[in-house]
Design brief:
single chain; alpha/beta; Rossmann fold; five-stranded parallel β-sheet; about 40% helix; globular
């Protein structure tokens, strides 16, 4: 059912105030036919439509369904509807949006809107109850985006990377980071490279980053680094085809060192270079690097 001549189905859900409306607008811009607040009981009725191959210029080839707690008593049937899709062998992708409690409280106060679960209680209590009710659904998501620190434009960029047209089967984001600043929230694979020789302790290298040839050579010429690269790329080439088979369209690999300036930057650049020849869309980013990105590769 994942064949190219069948409609692509994306289900959008998540916490109220986390950005689902913005996500739906972005999906519409990407050519999706979006249905907001659809009762889950209607999902099985779409199966017959989705089983019919899309003819060029006819029908719906990309469909996005936004379903959340606003559905009230109908929303309780969403897990049953998804189980039905699984049994029918109909492939779908689920995007789940969330944000930190304090961020959601602030957004509701700024917008002066009522939370769908609000009664006489406080907003935070409604948010916590919604989070509890959505816990099982969150576990089924193929992609989770935390919008706490994202602008609408940044959210649009992430959704475009996930669901925009691509000539490749998989988009791979490789992110370097420093553990002292925390692990990236959206990472699928987190790799700790703090076991490698650290250029920070070499006085002549400390002021540079992994973008500079002197640092890159120091890191890459280490026997430990060479062995790590060989084994890790071998593991990825084993995993990636299986991720694709499972239906994954977006993979985030986070590579971390202590400060996110030297080892992680070098390894992220090198890994991007090696995987770029493997028929994937590769995006290399450096979250914590001080020096502007001027990749050597």
């Amino acid at each position: 059912m994942a064949a190219a001549n069948y409609p692509r189905l994306v289900i959008v859900s998540g916490l109220s105030g986390a950005g689902k409306t913005q996500a739906a607008r972005c999906l519409e811009d990407l050519g999706f036919f979006c249905v907001d607040n659809l009762p889950p009981s209607l999902i099985p009725g779409l199966v017959d439509l989705l089983r019919q191959p899309v003819k060029e210029g006819q029908g719906i080839d990309k469909l996005a369904l936004v379903m959340d707690i606003r559905g009230g008593q109908f929303f309780a049937g969403l897990n049953d509807a998804l189980n039905y899709l699984d049994k029918q062998g109909l492939f779908y992708e689920m995007l789940f949006l969330e944000a930190a409690d304090e961020v959601l409280v602030r957004r509701y106060k700024e917008s002066r809107r009522r939370h769908p679960l609000s009664g006489s209680g406080r907003i935070i209590e409604s948010i916590m109850e919604e989070r509890r009710r959505l816990a099982e659904l969150r576990g089924r998501a193929s992609k989770i985006i935390d919008t706490s620190e994202l602008t609408p434009r940044q959210l649009n960029e992430q959704i475009t990377e996930l669901f925009g047209e691509s000539r490749r089967q998989l988009v791979i984001n490789i992110i370097s980071f420093g553990y002292k600043f925390g692990i990236p929230l959206d990472a699928d694979l987190v790799i700790d490279v703090r076991f490698l020789p650290n250029p920070y302790y070499i006085a002549s290298l400390r002021a540079f980053t992994g973008h500079d040839r002197c640092v890159a050579d120091f890191v890459l010429n280490s026997p430990e680094t060479q062995e790590f690269i060989e084994k890790f790329t071998s593991l990825l080439r084993f995993l990636i085809p299986r991720y694709i088979k499972e239906g994954k369209s977006h993979l985030v690999i986070a590579i971390g060192c202590t400060g996110g300036q030297h080892r992680s930057v070098t390894l992220a650049n090198k890994l991007g270079e090696l995987l770029r020849g493997d028929e994937y869309d590769i995006i290399v980013k450096h979250r914590d690097v001080i020096q502007p990105s001027t990749s050597l590769y």
